[in-house]
Amino acid sequence: MTNTPPPNTSRTSLRLEEITSGNLDAALAVTVAPEQEFAVAPVVKSLAEAFVHPGVAWPRLIMDGDRPVGFLMAFFDIDWRLDGTLFRSGLWRLNIAAGEQGRGYGRFAVQSVADEIRRRGGGELYVTWHEGGHGPEAFYLRLGFRRTGELSGGQAVGVLDLA
User: Rounded to two decimals, what is the model's pTM?
Assistant: First the structure.
């Protein structure tokens, strides 16, 4: 997977911003296409979950220059089975604004999470997705994720080897 900038966008214009009081409204305004709403929670729910999972959740606003184009939330060392036997890191949520899809922002987001997991010493990036039309499965498979055969909360689980 390469960190390729979206068309007509310079690599330096893309960045992640921590969610603050100054950009909260911009983050909350990120909405996916109506036909995708079944597949990803709204940003407000993600931020509530981040609040109750401090140190695990990593919410970020995806910016292209001065424009918010998406939101992601990663997770680090989450107790996957809730029994202390398996810890994983990965992408918890990815919301690319409806009018911004197909421009490489999702790829940038996944690469950014992969880079952060590597920085923290991890070697795999996990993600879950709702199956069905208008879902993100094809996107993740194109990026090199492979299905693990597991389900988590009724969603398919995929993993990307970062080695």
Answer: 0.90
